[in-house]
Specification:
This protein has helices spanning 2-45, 70-81, 101-108, 129-140, 160-165, 187-208, 224-229, 245-251, 275-287, 294-324, 327-354, 364-384, and strands spanning 60-66, 88-95, 115-120, 145-150, 153-155, 174-176, 220-223, 257-259, 267-269. By secondary structure, it is an alpha/beta fold. GO terms for molecular function: transferase activity.
Length: 393
Amino acid sequence: MTVYLHQYGKILHLSSVVADSLLYALGAFVVVQLFYYLFFFTRLAFYGKGANYGNAMPGVTVLVCAWNERENLTELIPLLDAQEYPEYEVILLDDRSDDGSEEYIRENINGWKNIRYIRINDQFDHVTPKKYALTVGMKQAKYPIALMTDADCRPSSNHWITAMTSRVTEDKDIVLGFSPYFKQRGLLNWFIRCETFYAAVQYLSFTLAGMTYMGVGRNILYKRSVFFANKGFYTHKHVFGGDDDIFLNEVSTSSNTTISIEEDSFVYSLPKTTWKDWFRQKRRHISVSRYYKPRNKILLGMLSGAHIATWLLALATLAWGLITKDHLLLQYLGIVFGVRWAIQWFLLIIINVKLDKTVEWFSFLLMDFALFVYYLVFGFLTMTSRKPRKSWN
């Protein structure tokens, strides 16, 4: 009997040690996550919109790179040509399209007021096609401000240019906009919107904290002088992608970059419709993160790492509590996760309203778990990724 009680005591002690270890580790990673929410994300949650449309309105060149985008151009060009802005131009950079884009543009260009067309027939081994096209556009532009978007995008209003340039000042050379995806039915569309929303929460919040690490090429503005002072995309001209995030990693400072989250500044995009296409696109985007500054890698790695660790430890704690019937442990787990979710919900709901209610608020808990799976999968793929293909898609 004494031996039995001794062994039972050891089991209880071990169970207690495991429970305490799981709970303390979980609490530590939750604290890391909450640090990001309270130090970074609160900046976006309580950021005032209030753009001053009365600011000086410098001339703007809108650059649109396109490769076999005839169908999208038929919808986008009229929206760009109808922008209400005193002095601007739109340069369509057609990179070797063979889908009738050139014929469509040449047939209709005389009917557009602000559209210029440049056909690009060359391709070079030392520079990727889109970066070459953007460089040509930068050199051919008439105005000091460059505003970029893609052919599959749609400005939310005819005040898009105005809303983006309203944030330009003598000290602010770069303006990051928000580009949500159109809402459609299906799990893939929901997840694309979730991931896009949470990515925007991060890069917009980090920018407000003076730590810009990326923007989205679908909606980004900067002074051309910044582009040429940096020698354009020279240091990463061979890297497919990165015309927005790697470039911003190089040129942004703690004070020269700001954001625009006015509703007029939003640019909507058409999402991928198959998991295969989305997976390929996402893997290509993530592959360029290896070129980020060490500080950016550390901060982003800690955030995603804490997200993964929090869920793994929470699931392990839940399993251990159920196996050992440790109701106190389960109660502590509920308290820790409850506090975490309450703070997340509060801030994300506020931000979601500012970002056009991109994600349904009642799905935030499911989004939290889906992002855990996403970080887990793509974290592994990032470490084992191969060189991406040198192609537009």
